[in-house]
Amino acid sequence: MDTLSKKGKKDEEWISDFLTRGVKEIIEEDSVRSKFESGTILRVKHGVDPTTSKLHFGYWVVYRKLRKLQEMGHTIQLLIGTFTAQFGDPSGKTEVRKERTADEVREVAGDYVKQLAKILDIQKLTVYWNNDWFGNMKLGDFFRIANHFSVWRLLERDMFVERKKLGKEIKAPELMYPILQAYDSVELKSDLTIVGSDQLFNEIQARNLQRAYKEEPQDIIALEVLVGLDGEKKMSQSLGNVINIDDEPHEKFGKIMSMPDHLIPHYFELLTDKSYKEIEAMKEGMKRGELNPKDLKEELALVLITELDGKEAAESAQKHFQKVFREKGVPESMKSFVVDKPMILKEIVFKSGLSESMSEAQRFIEQGAVTLEGKVIEDWKLEVYKKESIILRVGKRKFIKLVFNK
Amino acid sequence: MDTLSKKGKKDEEWISDFLTRGVKEIIEEDSVRSKFESGTILRVKHGVDPTTSKLHFGYWVVYRKLRKLQEMGHTIQLLIGTFTAQFGDPSGKTEVRKERTADEVREVAGDYVKQLAKILDIQKLTVYWNNDWFGNMKLGDFFRIANHFSVWRLLERDMFVERKKLGKEIKAPELMYPILQAYDSVELKSDLTIVGSDQLFNEIQARNLQRAYKEEPQDIIALEVLVGLDGEKKMSQSLGNVINIDDEPHEKFGKIMSMPDHLIPHYFELLTDKSYKEIEAMKEGMKRGELNPKDLKEELALVLITELDGKEAAESAQKHFQKVFREKGVPESMKSFVVDKPMILKEIVFKSGLSESMSEAQRFIEQGAVTLEGKVIEDWKLEVYKKESIILRVGKRKFIKLVFNK
């Protein structure tokens, strides 16, 4: 078995921080420690089911840990669930997920690795696709795997318990999902896996299955789940409370500045190396009114964007933000939307991407959140078609230049 | 669509008897009637999972119905569960069934069709093996089928409810079993299925799946379950209370004569064409002491054995029985067992097939149920090795001739 080079061995303080920061539960901590101390190169599994094409900061919490393990010299096995995502893990969902085809999943996962390049050393990443083993698996072989699982045990997953309470459906493949995830660990001979705490149940199943296959059971580090921009719920694409890893730097900056103040220490803990002592001091400072949350958010934004996009991008995003928000001005550069025939205002707002739907566009306008050349327009039926370009603004931060085709 | 010849159309009385005799539940009765009346040739599915190599009279209840449908001109599709039996349906079981290989299942089902030749017209039987579609089915295709099933609905099966109550396991493949059985109906485009009532749940699932596949849902005739020789429990190989379709005629005769009296009308109803009126009169006659149950059992045995093995065999079995039991004599012909080296008595009892195990043999001997040349022997360690043949008897009905190699 390969062992780590000298630089791979970390001191007790480093290990302690690794096993504490953002960590909700470890199974088994003693085993992880002794694996780290032994100097053996570990096979670390991390699985992701492509449900949307964008990876958000919630994933980053896990990838930061993986990056640290990469720096130690361990092997990171990134498992992309090209089979499992066709049916979907019900994690945290109270509704049945829609079935997709393998092609749709592959398309969604299209540039995951490109997005990950901002965090992980992708040259050293081993990428696996679980359609490689499940795609051609015969039903009989699956049943032989499934025979290691008790239905009662599978039903103990908290989201199943919740579905039951709510009188909501579980489709048969959803119940089978943890079996697939468990088998992934067997296939990858996983020594350690790092997951969000909502995946803990499935990964514990994997330990049992690995034992049945005469493999050493993997250890599990289950991390805290990052709270989204709404300040309450898990960051999730479907809740719309996300910052994406490949959002434009100024977009990231704006979003970070808009988060509720109480999230600041949470983000510093999960997404930076700031020491617990400093984070505690920050909380105290805010409480006593000695520290301005706006300044802390700017610091946070600078640190995070620097890590993902570089120092220059971070500083430029900061300037952009200051110009728009502090000086109430408009940004120096903005996207254009070409209006090539007369349209009413709510249609323009929607089609230019400033609202999610026509009805949302109408609501924005009626609430007075929309301005044209700085003037609030409350008539959503207004037909807009001019000779020269004008600036459309929705809310505080969304600007677009309307260009009219003559 | 093919239609029945004139002889295939049955009158109202025939249909009523068919839909009543031994029938526990029909889904949907109106639909079955109108199918029968339309004259269309129906595709009738009957599935059997090979769990033991012998078919017993419990199966015969179903096969009699199928024979009648054959005589009408309908197509009987006998489905042998070469895939499903590898994992096992938990029907009526409170214990998890042992997993088997496809080869083991095929061996068990080895001469099902030969056994069925005593009841069905096997020239007109279409035999299917569900390993043909499940054996090479990919996991993804199964998941797409399974997506039509709710876990809560699957858990409503009575044996699952009972397992839960008893705190017993359900293995994941067992929960999936009804999905497979349902898909069999889709594959066979079943119009009607005839099953024991313990299969009703699974066949109802099939109706839903057929609808999802844009097929007409099959109708279901669920039959009463035949009570075994113990007079209490469902006839079942594992309970040892069975009469097998290919038992020797005199063995069948003896078993029928040994059944508790209260089963007589039950057997006449489920396994003969005796009218309900006659069966009621029979019950009354027994109750008033005007009819001797022994005579009724002899009548039953003659009818049943005649149907399976012919009149001659039935009458010869009757003579054999009368000789052995009425005259307390020994049968004229019996099997031989060659003893080619000195053996102790319990070993002979077991190896000659008169007991299921060595320990059972010992128990029989200690209880005084074993005689050699008419003399009770209670010493199981007795070494038996003689010059001439002698008769070994266990219980009332089991005889064997021991032949010693000199």
Automatic annotation (TrEMBL), chains A, B:
The protein's enzyme class: ligase
Record's GO cellular component terms: cytosol
EC number: 6.1.1.1
InterPro entries, sorted: aa-tRNA-synth_Ic (IPR002305), Rossmann-like_a/b/a_fold (IPR014729), S4_RNA-bd (IPR002942), S4_RNA-bd_sf (IPR036986), Tyr-tRNA-ligase (IPR002307), Tyr-tRNA-ligase_bac-type (IPR024088)
Name this protein carries in UniProt: Tyrosine--tRNA ligase
Family the UniProt entry places it in: Belongs to the class-I aminoacyl-tRNA synthetase family.
Keywords associated with the record: Aminoacyl-tRNA synthetase, ATP-binding, Ligase, Nucleotide-binding, Protein biosynthesis, RNA-binding
Secreted in keyword set: no
